[in-house]
Amino acid sequence: MPQSPERFIPVFDHSHRPNAGRMPEWIRLNLDADPRYADTARAVHEQGLNTVCEEARCPNRGECWARGTATFMLLGETCTRACGFCSVQTGRPDWFDNDEPRRVAEAATAMGLDYIVLTSVNRDDMADGGAGIFAETLREVRRRDARMGVEFLTPDFQQDMDGAVDGIAAAAAEFPLAESEPADLVWGHNVETVPSLYREVRKGSRYERSLELLERAAALPRVEAKSALMLGMGETADEVAGVLRDLRACGVERIALGQYLRPTRYHLPVKEYVSPEQFDEYAAIARELGFGWVKAGPLVRSSYHAEERQDHAIEGASA
Fold first, then answer.
1. How does DSSP classify residue 225?
2. Does the predicted model carry a pTM greater than 0.85?
3. Percent helix / strand / coil, the chain, rounded to 5
4. Where are the beta strands (DSSP E) in 91-207?
5. Between 310 and 152, residue with greater pLDDT
6. In the chain, fewer beta carbons within 10 Å around the N or the C end?
7. Residue 261 dihedral angles phi and psi, to the nearest 5°
8. Listed range (93-97, 158-162, 184-188) with the worst mean pLDDT
């Protein structure tokens, strides 16, 4: 269930560090009153499921839930890492449920989804990092609807990357789609920020390891690799362009660029509110580099409008 903003204090307390000024007018947070919002909430909560929409306090929850889409968070609500930007609680997980893949698949079916996004907390306490649950959830979803689009947003599986890649690839291969259909699987893993900020922003993670996982995912047949960056944490424009080049060199096809928003006063501060015009410039760079799917804007998150297919028109800050 969703965490109250003050229910816990992150491992690293940044409350003494102020944000970079008032939030600008182009960032608007809202909850949609559309009746489908309540339908989505009911389908999620009746199955006792977690969503990153709630756990990470996503600013787009109202819009996405009103559209009948949600990003399911597997493997509980306690993460083994302590990223300075994330509102998911850190600790020693004591939760595991082999039946979770079935419940997620049934919720997706009940919601009438044609595209589902699945993510998870980091589970470094598990030998496979939770990869087996991703694979089994894919199987459960495809058994019910072989054509449902599936997107993973996974950890880096640092304990056993080889096993994770092989296991998820095998599950995807069990239900191949026709060549005329979109990719069998979109495999996302977020680099989140630029290399110079990793030690502070992504404790326990390594930029090079994230690139390695994305390259492995991109090399799988009929799998598209995807990543995302949060901006406004102190990175430079040149650093962002450098990460975009690294991702394309690894074969990543999809990229999402959004504004970092501090979830509570205890988390890392916002260093800069990036303008919509700057997001448009980043989107143009991404297109020039050959990304086929680009979302860039202040409220964009990695799973925002994930189901959309794009042409090569630049989608900028209005996304």
1. E
2. no
3. 35, 15, 55
4. 115-120, 149-153, 185-188
5. 152
6. N
7. -125, 125
8. 93-97
